[in-house]
Amino acid sequence: MFLSPLRSLLAAAFLITCAPAIAQSQLPRAEIEGIVKDYLIKNPEVLRDALIELERRGKAEEDAQRARAVSDLAPKIFNSPRQVVVGNPAGKIELVEFFDYNCGYCKKAFDDLAQLIRKNPDLRVVLKEFPVLGPGSIEAAQVAHSVRMQGPSDKYWAFHQKLLTTRGQIGKAQALAAARDAGLDIGRLTKDIDSDEVKASLQEVMQMADALGLTGTPSYVVGGDVVVGAVGASDLQGRIDNLRRCGKTTCS
Fold it and tell me: In a 3-state reduction of DSSP, which class is residue 96?
């Protein structure tokens, strides 16, 4: 089913290339289609090469769109008042993580992030709650934003660590328990959960993620690049090292 439209595209390209000869010969349509079919059968690698090129161009365009979105939204991505910064708040190297407390890959990636913070004293990490895995995730994100509103960031980090190292589904009850363990004011939290500030905070991240083309967690912004998926500490460290070396995540 997939090859049919691709084959049509290739046929069109073939016809354009051979247009002068076809015009002169005025071959019947059925005969022309037979020529194209015979060509593709004898040269099946054309399909493979076309698929590879199609994927390359699609990814390049997607990366370009995301880079433009990062540039346009930079103030909110890196310096929104509705976010938590851990690591070195004044660090020159910036990494943003979009996460969901019910995301298994985010739980595994927590150790990667903690390791990066330990190894890179100049790393500024921005955390963005991106609850895409159901009602429990939204509840946990609401509590998290309420925790952020109380500050300071070390209490948020303790809360964050507790939830990402907790097995099973996370919802309001688990999030409030983690907040209590971190020493937060639970009475204030329960009031803040339904506040306009929490609603605006969640909406801001959702709009940002949509503009960046994010569909899952974890996702990162490193420098001007968007990185989707739990790529591991070594991959992120390589990008960080390149930012120091040449100001880009990939050095030529």
Answer: strand
